[in-house]
Amino acid sequence: MNTPTLIGSLIFAAVLLVLVTWLIQLMMRGWRNRAARQAELIGTLPPVPDTVGAVTAPSLRGLYVGCTLSPRWHDRVAVGDLGYRTRAVVTGYPEGIMVQRSGAHPIWIPRERLIAIRTERGMVGKAVPTANHDGAILAIRWRLPSGTEIDTGFRADNRDSYPQWIEEAR
């Protein structure tokens, strides 16, 4: 490699590095701005109760997909750690639903704030194709203390209990 080619390659690499860094900063700024815009809509989440009754719906292990503002299933909530995907366990109790997420705060959905539980084929950038075109994501719609309705998405490793969860919501 001759000197002019080496210098040209180094300049190109430096420009590319600056461009990638700038794009990452723009994405981070966009996420922070989204969180600031949504902060008032979301408010504070309901506190996790100290005690709960017996389990009413079987625990589901799987992937917490995220929360979206209802009914816009592409409008991911960016406040706190609600927008981050993680492994989770969802359990139903007479008082509500507990979403225990690994590496994040648990989410408590009080029974009186629950609006509906349904299945969806996709949510916040997570689309799961299935052979019989049924929903692979359990979407829990509920009302926050601020009055805003959100959908909490969860994709279970084993979806055999989805019908029981949907019936439990009724």
TrEMBL record:
Entry keyword annotation includes Transmembrane helix: yes
Domain PH per the UniProt entry, residue ranges: 42-169
The keyword Membrane belongs to this UniProt entry's keyword annotation: yes
Pfam families membership: bPH_11 (PF25362)
Transmembrane segments: 6-24
Keywords assigned: Membrane, Transmembrane, Transmembrane helix
Family matches, as InterPro entries: PH_bac
Name of the protein in question: Transporter
UniProt organism field: Mycolicibacillus parakoreensis
